[in-house]
Design a protein that fits this description.
The chain is of the alpha+beta class and about 425 residues long. The protein has three domains: about 1-170, 2-Layer Sandwich (Alpha-Beta Plaits), CATH 3.30.70.270; about 170-240, Orthogonal Bundle (DNA polymerase, domain 1); about 250-425, Dna Ligase, domain 1 (2-Layer Sandwich). Helix content is about 35%, strand content about 25%. It has helices spanning about 15-20, 50, 60-65, 80-90, 120-135, 150-155, 170-175, 190-195, 200-205, 210-215, 220-230, 260-280, 315-330, 360-380, and strands at about 5-10, 30-35, 45, 70-75, 100, 105-110, 140-145, 165, 250-260, 285-295, 300-310, 335-345, 385, 400, 405-410, 420-425. Helix 4 (about 80-90) packs across helix 5.
């Protein structure tokens, strides 16, 4: 049985919804942007008119306004976008019980049934496209193909408000000439590595020996080679499917640039408190830690490290992140944002091999202390108790409090502090 997979992508989703609710800006260049005051001042999405001026997703607002001086910037309303996303999904679910979301604005639909052809899928895709436009007032682009990867490529090939079909007998001539960066899961770092080896198109990638790609990228190299050759067999999940938790992370854009290791450590510690709590809630432990650092020039880097044993400990996760930062970050630029992520998750009650050279008793004492801290937070709130390292020797007036993070910021004019905390010492 030939698979028939659709990928629906709402065009400029956030901006389209905003224009729908504010008719006066529909025919003007519009971008949904983060908050400049909270240093999230980048373009999240833009409408087609702004795109024609060269405005790009991810660039700073000031850069976008240099290209388009009349650009209208609106703040995001995620509650509204979620409601629209649910309404789109209800339409999709009328056609199949296998609808898999890919973010708020994208979804795969598996129409596969005996006797159903790609051309039938194309007809249904047009029907869905027209229904979304008529019932919700926004447009979608739909890709139709025999696997998820090519359906996604199809929805990206023609925008807005279009249907693109990539059947099994006619895909190489259309897909292989595309830039390799167009392939799903080929991010900027992978693109740079591939281009440095003169792999510029999806066809170039497909023609490489898979063993060579495995040597360069590990198992991900084999996955990308299979994608490029049309060998994706991944399923579209059932409507009620809940994806397993593969990582738990927390990040923050700081209210002012971080310029020293001590300030970075405090942010890491605060982020790790949240990660540790969520790991406990999920009954999981992390075997690795990833640190993502973005400088104030908006360039970013990621580093990873394996832990000696599974951990839920905020202190152990923070210490691993600090080790990564101290050994890998060069301090060429001040730090604008940090993200800490617990990786390679395993059940927290899974038996583990003890380290015969480690201090297991000390680790158990720390575990009991953190259990107690977690219980206090559950009863009295997140700010009831936290590490004294977040204060250091600084007076309260020099701390700026934001949701989920505290950062030393001497430039702050109006610090916010709403509760005298209790402190725990980080020396345990």
């Amino acid at each position: 049985m030939e698979r028939v997979i659709l990928h629906c992508d709402a065009n400029a989703f956030y901006a389209s919804v905003e224009c729908l609710y504010t008719p006066s800006i529909r025919h003007r260049p519009v971008a949904v942007c983060g908050s400049v005051e909270e240093r999230h001042g980048i373009v999240l999405t833009k409408n087609q008119i702004a795109k024609q001026f060269g405005v790009q997703t991810g660039e700073a607002i000031w850069q976008a306004r240099q290209k388009c001086p009349d650009l209208i910037c609106v703040p995001p309303d995620y509650g509204l976008y979620i409601r629209f996303s649910k309404r789109m999904r209800r339409i999709y679910e009328e056609y199949s019980d296998r609808v898999e979301s890919f973010g708020l604005d994208e979804a795969w639909i598996d129409l596969s049934n005996p006797g159903l052809t790609i051309r039938d899928g194309e007809r249904i895709a047009h029907e869905i496209r027209l229904r979304v436009k008529r019932e919700l007032g926004i447009t979608v682009s739909v890709g139709v193909s025999f696997n998820k990867i090519f359906a996604k490529l199809g929805s990206d090939m023609k925008k807005p408000d279009a249907v693109t079909t990539l059947p099994r007998d006619d895909w190489k001539g259309r897909i292989w000439p595309l830039p390799v960066s167009e392939l799903l899961y080929v991010g900027p770092a992978t693109t740079r590595k591939l281009m440095s080896r003169n792999i510029l198109t999806i066809g170039d990638l497909a023609k490489m020996p898979p063993e060579l790609l495995h040597g360069w990228f590990g198992k991900n190299g084999i996955v990308l080679w299979r994608f490029a050759n049309g060998e994706d067999n991944s399923r579209v999940m059932q409507n009620d499917y809940e994806a397993p938790i593969k990582s738990v992370g927390h990040g923050i854009t700081c209210s002012c640039d971080l310029r020293d290791n001590e300030s970075v450590w405090r942010v890491m510690l605060e982020l790790s408190q949240d990660i540790g709590h969520r790991l406990r809630v999920y009954g999981l432990a992390a075997m690795g830690v990833r640190l993502a650092v973005r400088s104030n020039d908006l360039s970013g880097s990621q580093y990873q490290i394996q832990l000696s044993y599974p951990s839920q400990s905020p202190m152990e996760i923070a210490q691993a992140a600090r080790t990564l930062f101290l050994t890998r970050y060069s301090w060429n630029m001040p730090v604008r944002s940090l993200t800490v992520t617990g990786l390679n998750l395993v059940p927290s009650d899974q038996p583990t091999q003890l380290d015969m050279f480690g201090d297991e008793q000390r680790r158990m004492r720390r575990q009991k202390l953190e259990d107690c801290v977690d219980e206090i937070r559950n009863r009295f709130g997140k700010r009831a108790i936290f590490s004294a390292a977040l204060m250091g020797c600084l007076p309260v007036e020099q701390m700026v409090w934001r949701p989920d993070v505290a950062v030393h910021c001497p430039e702050a004019v109006a610090p916010v502090f709403y509760r005298k905390p209790n402190w725990i010492c980080n020396h345990f």
